[in-house]
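Sample entry (160 residues):
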Amino acid sequence: MFQHPEVDDLVQCQSISKGEVLVMQQSYELMTIIDSSLESAMLENTIKRVDDILHSSGATVTLKDNFGKRTLAYSIDHRNEGVYVIFDFTVDKSQVAQMESALSLVDGIVRHRIIKIPENRASRPPTLLSSSGGSTHVNSMHTTGGMHGGMHVTRSDLNV
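Predicted structure, serialized as tokens:
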């Protein structure tokens, strides 16, 4: 893999054995809000379904981060809580629209959003969580994207 010098965004190029076809891969973040009323088995099944959609689209998942149940900023479909799960992945940009369609059909997903990860954030450390005074806070989140209850915020804004 290499980074093309004439491209502003992170683009990874890989050769595929079928006649040296060049596939352009970009880094993305998927934030999902899953219905918090689902039973544990159904919740895990929904997360696995999202993972399967990513892999079937040719994505390479680099991070899966379950933030757990959180209060939404506003009610969505009469729900006040949701389970936030974030996936970082690389995929051919032509697959993103197909992934969006497939994700919109998954039962249990209240909201989802895929955003392109800026080049300067493409290789960040995993989430570091610590507890202080009874609440958990994100210590090291080098991100510039995501969605919280339908609002665009940085992950460091999430009080998890």
